[in-house]
Amino acid sequence: MPxxxxxxxxxxxxxxxxxxxxxxxxxxxxxxxxxAKLKIESNKPIRDMERERKMLQELIILGxxxxxxxxxxxxxxxxxxxxxxxxxxxxxxxxxxxxxxxPTSFAFLGPKGSYSHIAASEYAHRNLQTCIxxxxxxxxxxxxxxxxxxxxxxxxPIENTCSGSINEVVNLLxxxxxxxxxxxxxxxxxxxxxxxxIPLNQxxxxxxxxxxxxxxxxxxxxxxxxxxKYTTSTADAMKKINQYNNIYxxxxxxxxxxxxxxLKILSKNLANQEKNITRFILLHRNSISISSNIPTKTTLIxxxxxxxxxxxxxxxxxxxxKLIMKKLTSQTIYKNPWEEMFxxxxxxxxxxxxxxxxxxxxxxxxxxxxxxxxxxxxxxxxKVP
Length: 385
Known about the structure:
Shape: globular
Number of domains: 4
Low-confidence stretches: none
Order of helices and strands: HHHEHEHEEHEEEHHEHEHEEEHEEHE
Strand content: 25-35%
CATH architecture of the largest domain: Up-down Bundle
Helix content: 40-55%
CATH superfamily of the largest domain: Chorismate mutase
CATH topology of the largest domain: Chorismate Mutase Domain, subunit A
Mean pLDDT: 86
Largest sheet: 6 strands, mixed
């Protein structure tokens, strides 16, 4: 049985190990600073999610060799990785300030406080850019803002877990000369907002964009007496609540928006599905080249005319080339109800020989094909609060 002396020996040994751990963490931080400097000089992104994933897998295997659980290794090194990323971001911010880099402007469906505004702000934060906002009243106006060099990026919602694809945006992608260069997933917490806390059965009129009404249809059905009014955006709905100053009016909008417009939250998390997530895409005037080491997505739209089996042929080409289809949606072509247009996301880099060969085959059997962009896959999914 260990006595006090042996306990003291064990504790001293642990103290020595802890001291070594701190010294190694300091050494690691110094290396991180050198890496950050190289990344800044070579204009490389701060974070490489694929490398982090592989590193964590290797550490978990090593930890199991020494009877350390995967959960323990994961928690420990996720903390270390986040600290490393934070260190690099601080260094990059300092570099940006010292070199007076030009802020980046984002066009989105506004006003301030809309979900598109939240997506633009989050994307700018993750990529260490100063977000200058350009509020627009329609999706078309968002695209025109970038096409006319008034903004650097267009932020557009492309699909939602409750309501599916946003067809209006898909139609605009067919016509624009912009390219998709990124994506971001945002948790959508639809709230019922008003200027005062009143019982829900006293509300007379509810304002919002058509998408929130669609995504919260189960909740809305509980109150058939409500008068539904459509607005250009959720933020526009919140502004109207303020302007009209009627305690019996309410809006479907964001929790962040409630703070911006000084509204009370009557109810929250109103979507039909608990995990209500919208995927937003970022568009730019120029396409981008992605390293072959980064998980990449290529997006295209195509129509097959009225030829029977053309879509099956496209899917067969993907299968034969072992390419993963991440998404496929269709919609009827305007003014031609007998034809369909397809939107498809393929996991793969457009610069690879395999993808080039695959796209060439698809173009040969389709009536119309347009490459919308090649961009890094968004691996960060928002947690439900």
